[in-house]
Amino acid sequence: MSLIGDGLEKAVQKAFTRPAPKSAGAQMRYLVKQLKGTKAVAQTLRISQRTVERYVKDQIKKPRPDLAARLEREVKKRWQPQIRAKAKAKAASTGGIVIDTRARLGYTAPIGSTDQDRIRHLTVALPPQHAARLFDAQEAGAPDHQLQEIAAQALKEVYFQDGGRRAGSLEEVRLTDIEHLEFDL
C-alpha cells in the first residue's frame, strides 16, 4: 500500500472492538472462512493450497516473515467490515479526521513570502469533507501521490488559510519528504 493509505488504514483499525486473530493457524482459518476455500486463500497469499491446509490443521505454526506480513495484512483488511464502515462513515459525516505529520511543507505564494518549503510538525483536525475525500480516494485505489495531493489541499484550506479566514494568494501547497504521518478518527 502507501504511506497515507496505510495511515488511514491504521486509524480505522483503532476502532476495532475485538482483536484480530494472532496465530498463523487462526488467521488462515479466518481467511478460509472469508474467502470460502483454501484455493482462494492460496492464490491471495501466493502459496500452495496444501500449505494453507497444513496451517489450518496447525501442522505448521510459524510462517516465514514475508508470509506472516501478507497473512496479517489480508486478515486486517477483512476484519470487522461493519465496524470499519461505521468508523469511516462517522469520520466522513460528523467526526472528521486528525492528521499528525512531520513533513516538508511549502506553498506557492507571492515573491518575498517567508513561508518557503521547510520541515514542519503539524497536528491538524480536518473537517469531515476532507476525511470523506481521503477515504473515497483510498477506496477507489488512488496512488500515494494522489492521496498526498488531497491531504495537502486539506492542509491548505484548514491550516494555511485558516478555513478561509486567511484567504491569501496561496496557489498550491506541497507535502513532501514525509518523516512521520499518523491519522486519528
Largest sheet, in brief, is:
3 strands, antiparallel
Rg, Å, rounded: 20 Å
Number-wise, the strands total 3
Count of DSSP H/I helices:
8
| Integer average pLDDT | 87
Distance between the termini: 20 Å
Residue share in helix = 40-55%
Strand share of the residues?
15-25%
Shape: elongated
Q: H/E element string?
A: HHHHHHEEHHE
| Structural class category | alpha+beta
How is the largest sheet built, in terms of strand order?
2-1-3
* Low-pLDDT windows of residues: none
Structure explained in plain terms:
The protein has helices spanning 3-13, 24-35, 38-45, 49-56, 65-78, 81-95, 128-139, 144-160, and strands at 97-108, 118-126, 172-184. The protein has 185 residues and is α+β, with helices and mostly antiparallel strands. Strands 2-1-3 form a 3-stranded antiparallel beta sheet. Helix 7 runs antiparallel to helix 8. It is elongated and about 70 Å long.
